[in-house]
Amino acid sequence: MTPAEDARERIAQLVVTLREFVAASGAFSAVLLLDQGEGIAPLLVECPAGGPAMLSEGEEVVALDAARLAAAPLPLPGVRALPPFDVDALRAEVVAPLGGVEHLARAVRELVEAFPGRSVLTVTFATSDPDTPLHLSARTGDPMVLSLGEETFEMDAGWPGG
Fold first, then answer.
1. DSSP 3-state assignment of 19?
2. pLDDT reported for residue 89
3. Which pLDDT belongs to residue 4?
4. Predicted pLDDT of residue 22
5. Which of 23, 33, 104, 155 is 20 to 30 A removed from 64 (C-alpha atoms)?
6. Is 133 helix (H, G, I), strand (E, B) or coil?
7. Residue 147 and residue 119: Cα distance in Å, rounded?
8. What's the total number of domains in the chain?
9. What range defines the domain where residue 144 resides?
10. At what angle do helices 100-112 and 3-25 cross, to 10 degrees?
11. What is the model's pLDDT at position 7?
12. Is 162 domain-assigned?
């Protein structure tokens, strides 16, 4: 396999993996900033729940239909879809379901560890307030970042616990 074919296969695998994770977790979308190594610009992979995934490298943007990619996904963490989180947007609080954020955060944390280097994964979930989505962002070795609407919180190192 040539280096170009290997790179295309790896990208296809990432897109299929993100698509399957979005479906399994009930997320709106997953966005991966893929670390390609020292001196190489990162690649942006956007995978909405519906429609094609978008691959961006600099100014170049390519739509990829994950259903047509013939790649096996990476192993997915144990994750299940939850109903939209009940939130109090004024207080920037997730009210229910109890333990739901931690469940999804563990899965996002586990999945980002499958990607190389300093890659960043952000997954967006529905809440009871359409204007206040929940975003979970992870990078291997860094604390997770939780965003609720416009409010952003860097979580304690080690959160969520295993």
1. helix
2. 74
3. 63
4. 97
5. 104
6. coil
7. 18
8. 1
9. 3-154
10. 170
11. 74
12. no
Query: Is 159 among the domain residues?
Result: no
The closest alpha carbon to 127, from 78, 93, 79, 80, belongs to 93
Q: What pLDDT, on a 0 to 100 scale, did the predictor assign at position 97? A: 75
Query: What are the residue ranges in the chain where pLDDT is below 70?
Result: 1, 3-4, 66-67, 162
Within-domain flag for 161:
no
Q: What is the token pair recorded at 50?
A: 């519906």
The answer to whether 96 touches 87, Cβ cutoff 8 Å, is no
Does some domain include residue 135?
Answer: yes
Those residues whose C-beta lies under 8 Å from the C-beta of residue 5, and which sit 6 or more positions away, are: none
Could you tell me where the beta strands, DSSP code E, fall in 49-116?
53-57, 60-64, 86-88, 93-96
In the chain, the DSSP E strands lie at 29-34, 43-48, 53-57, 60-64, 86-88, 93-96, 120-125, 134-139, 145-148, 151-154
Asked if 66 and 53 touch (Cβ cutoff 8 Å), the reply is: yes
Report the C-alpha gap between 118 and 76 in whole angstroms. Answer: 19
Long-range (24+ apart) CB contacts under 8 A made by 146-155 are 146/101, 146/105, 148/87, 148/89, 148/92, 148/93, 148/94, 149/89, 149/92, 151/92, 153/92, 155/105
